[in-house]
Design brief:
Blueprint lengths: L4 H6 L2 H5 L3 H22 L15 H20 L7 H15 L21 E5 L16 E14 L7 E14 L5 E3 L23 H13 L4 H12 L5 H14 L4 H9 L3 E11 L2 E9 L4 E6 L3 H8 L6 E4 L11 E3 L1 H12 L4 H26 L6 H4 L1 H14 L9 H15 L1 H5 L12 H17 L5 H19 L4 H13 L19
Parallel strand pairs: 1-3, 5-8, 8-9
Antiparallel strand pairs: 2-3, 3-4, 5-6, 6-7
Helix pairs in contact: 6-8, 6-19, 7-8, 8-18, 11-12, 11-15, 12-14, 14-15
């Protein structure tokens, strides 16, 4: 670039008019070179430069994929006479490849487990009491009919840490009572549910604690299914297929589904809720991951970015304080707070622009926000002696006048900085009460950092795995993430609790409630 920011700030309309023709031509030539270079940089994308694919905005990716799908549909609807035989074969091949589902194909030869592990224990599931005569039965009356192996892990204690791999043989069959009645035992299988393709059953190779470890590696350590299999093989000498690992994560998600309603009740009865959302792709379609956080509860869900999603989570009768950004879906809640961090960052960007008028507005916003922030912090440190809104009425009036002045700023000239300046001015005017309500309640937060920090871990996961491929996968991620984050917020180790939930749900029992806050230092790191 020829000109620096310092140079451009000195160039304005008055300066250009003061130049003679030759100097103005030289200036115009240099500005043209800079404009061409800036436009080339702006048009860079992963297809024409070394920029990574992850740098493309998700909404642009969604538009491109929607356009490709539309073009493909148009080509498919064209008559056969309009396409050559070679193009038809190429299109058919592409369609067959696209419709092919991942994993084992229908009719393909199956493969069983080839790894044989040493049996570390045998559990006999026999009836302990006759259903007819109520006589107590013993294992000697049992005859095995079927069985299966369960591979699990045992966690070490504080004085003897470590992990032990177990392979327990479970036997099921008939228990014959002396009265002649035969009691039959089988592994419990939960009923099928419409939203879940994965089965929740005791008849499973992977035990609850090992399944909890797999969820930890996938969601907390952010490993892919393939890397989880590599870790289990290298460290535990256990071979599990990628499909089995994926099934474990989905089954754990289904096991946690009954816990969502108690989490919703905690949110709806909370005094203060932080809410935020970030983009998430499901099989190439743009969705959003929502985060709702209170003092002791976290709920994450993947859904559309609509008003209905907020209403489904918080309900229509939510009476607590809601801290959020400026998304319009939150505006239906009267006791709403706005994040000053978002506003401050927008003002910083406008204040650093090369437009003098936009700079002036950005500096006014920053001056008012910083002054009011200091007033709120001082009020928190001691007793509130006077109304902050009345005390700093002159600052608020100065900001209001500036917003009124710049609310139609984009009409003056076309440009991104004009649009951003106008948008920020209107944002203040539209959300004035929500933004400055904290002056009346200085004990309430100024920023939405709690929700943003909750989402940060899952944003990194999204960048690594590029989202999910099915509705069931998205549902599992949301449920497991809610349980994990809530346990961590309550200083409870999530993995033993998750294993207990899986074990009880496989038996058809209700899951244990999420433990209350623990004072144990186990998560202090």
């Amino acid at each position: 670039m020829i000109f620096s920011d310092h140079d451009l700030r000195q160039i304005n309309q008055a300066y250009i008019e003061s130049l003679d023709i030759e100097t103005a031509k030289k200036l115009a030539s240099k500005l043209l070179e800079d404009l061409k270079e800036a436009r080339e940089r702006l048009n860079q994308n992963p297809n024409n430069s070394s920029r990574p694919p992850s740098s493309t905005e998700p909404w642009i990716i969604a538009d491109i994929e929607a356009e490709e799908d539309s073009d493909a549909a148009g080509k498919d609807s064209s008559s056969g006479s309009e396409r050559s035989e070679a193009n038809e074969k190429k299109s058919d091949k592409k369609q067959n490849t696209k419709s092919r589902k991942p994993g084992k194909q229908k009719g393909a030869e199956g493969k069983g487990r080839t790894q044989r592990l040493k049996i570390t224990g045998i559990v006999v599931h026999f009836a302990e009491q006759c259903a007819i005569c109520d006589r107590e039965l013993t294992e000697s009356d049992f005859t095995a009919r079927t069985g299966h192996y369960v591979i699990d892990i045992i966690m070490g204690e504080e004085d003897q840490p470590g992990i032990t791999l177990t392979n327990v043989k479970h036997l099921y069959g008939d228990t014959v009572c002396p009265c002649g009645h035969v009691m039959h035992s089988v592994p419990h299988r939960c009923e099928k549910e419409e939203d879940w393709d994965v089965e929740l059953t005791e008849w499973h190779l992977v035990g609850p604690m090992l399944m909890s470890l797999i969820c930890c590696l996938a969601l907390r350590m952010r490993l892919s299914r393939r890397l989880i299999g590599e870790f289990l093989h290298d460290w535990l000498r256990l071979r599990l297929s990628t499909g089995t690992i994926d099934q474990c994560i989905h089954e754990a998600g289904r096991a946690c589904e009954p816990l969502e309603e108690p989490l919703l009740e905690c949110l709806r009865s909370a005094y203060l809720v932080y809410a935020d959302e970030t983009s998430w792709k499901e099989k190439g379609i743009l969705y959003w991951m929502w985060a709702f956080k209170t003092a002791d509860t976290v709920l994450l869900t993947i859904s559309r970015r609509t008003k209905e999603t907020v209403e489904r989570i918080l309900g229509e009768d939510f009476t607590g304080w809601l801290m959020s950004d400026g998304y319009k879906a939150y505006r239906y809640y009267l006791k709403r707070l706005r994040c000053w961090g978002h506003l401050e960052r927008k003002a910083e960007g406008i204040g650093e622009s090369l437009n003098e008028k936009a700079q002036e507005f950005g500096k006014v916003v920053l001056k008012v926000l910083k002054a009011l922030m200091e007033a709120v912090y001082r009020a928190r440190a001691g007793p509130l002696e006077e109304d902050l809104r009345a005390k700093h009425g002159d600052l608020l009036e100065e900001l209001r006048l500036a917003c009124e002045q710049y609310k139609d700023f984009a009409k003056q000239k076309v440009g991104k900085i004009y649009e951003k300046t106008q948008a920020l001015a209107r944002e203040f005017l539209n959300d004035w009460e929500a933004i400055f309500r904290v002056l009346e309640h200085p004990e309430l937060p100024l920023t939405n950092n709690e929700a943003e920090r909750t989402l940060r871990h899952w944003v990194i996961l999204r960048k690594l795995c590029y989202g999910t491929r099915t509705k069931q996968g998205s549902r599992s991620i949301g449920l497991l993430a809610s349980v994990i984050e809530t346990c961590r917020l309550r200083n409870v180790l999530a993995w033993p609790y998750l294993a207990e939930v899986i074990a009880k749900r496989r038996k058809g029992l209700d899951p244990p409630p999420i433990p209350e806050f623990s004072t144990s230092p186990i998560l202090s790191i």
